Structure formats: structure tokens, C-alpha cells
Amino acid sequence: MAKNDEVYMSALQGKSIPILTLDNKWHQLFTQTDMTPEIEQLADELNALVEKDGKLRSQTKDIKKLKKKLLGEIVPLRDKANKLGNAPNIEKEISERTRLINECNEKIDSHQDELLDLSKQIYDVDYKLMIETMKVCYERLYDNTTDINALDEWIKRARIELKKNVIRLQEAEMENYNLYSYMHQIFGPEVVDLFDMKYDPDKRHPIRRPLSGEEYVE
Fold first, then answer.
1. Are 205 and 173 in contact (CB under 8 A)?
2. How far is residue 19's CA from residue 79's CA, in Å, rounded to a whole number?
3. What is the DSSP letter of 22?
4. pTM for the whole thing?
5. Fewest C-beta atoms under 10 Å: which of 133, 136, 139, 191?
6. Residues forming a β-bridge with 217
7. Consecutive H or E run containing 154
């Protein structure tokens, strides 16, 4: 019994969705059921996007450190140039650092744009993965519930049949016990032995006594 995507989307609306492949509990789900090819493909895609996102963030962090270092170098160079007056070599160094800082700014802006785009891609793939995960888990839950209900009905019927058979068993044992006892009393052990009817109900077929409803001991 499948549900359509709109049902799952409605259930997820407004919910905070973790990055599933980074969540250990999500991986534990698939110790209970198998991943479908769709889930494996989406998980691989999500992992690739997350890895790319991590690299970009690391690169952005390094660029910002470099920018901060360059900015820190310009101040003393400017002070030195002001003291010396005409200092083309120092001005050249300041110009080079300024160029590198501008490059850093461009790379940071480019990375920020890419990170925003990656963030959207990660959310979209993560969302699709969540939908596929819910589908698989729902189907497994439904199938298991169907099996559970069928087994529960079988067990109920088996218990009733077991109780009936236990009663039949007790009645047959009691009948054997009484038959043997009466025959033994009426005809005596010698006559019973002549008919090869050696029978000791206390040893061979002791009457079972109920313990707790369904358990019986000899």
C-alpha cells in the first residue's frame, strides 16, 4: 500500500531535516531494511555535494586568513612609505598586496555564491532522500504489520486448538486410567497379565496437571 509524494511532503512541511547521510540514526534504519537503488544514488549524490561544500568552506576560510595577513602587512608598509617619502619599491609591494587582496575578495564572493547554490542543491537532494527513505520504511512497516496481524490470528487459533487437544488428552488419559483400574480390580492382576495388558498409568501415561493455562506437566 503505497503513499504518494504529496503525503510525505505534507508530513515533512515545516520540519527541520538533517543531512541524512551524516546522521548515524539514518544509517541504523538500513540495518532493519535494505536500501533501494534510488536511495543509494541519492545518498552518493548528497555525499558528493556535502564533500564539495566542505572543501569550499575550507578554501574560503584559508582565503580569509590570507586576506587578513595581507591587510596586516599593508599598514606597516604604508607607514614605512610615508616616512621615507619617495619609495617606489614599497609602493610596489603595497600595490601587489592590494591586488592579492582584491583577488581574495573576488574568490570569497565567488565561493559564497557557489556555497549558496550548493546549500540549495544539498537541501533538494536531502529532501528527495528523506521522501525515498519514508517510502521504503512505510512499505516495510505496512508489510510487517500485515504479517504481524496474520501471525496473531494464527496464534489465537492455535491456542484454541491447543486447549481443545489438551482436554482430549486429559480425557483419554483419565479413561485409560479408569479402564485399567477397574479391570485390575475386577479381574485381578493375574487375569490382566494373561491378556498381555500390563499397564501402569502412573509410569506410562500419568495424568497431566495444568500449571498456568497452557503449560502442563506430568
1. yes
2. 50
3. G
4. 0.67
5. 191
6. 209
7. helix 88-194
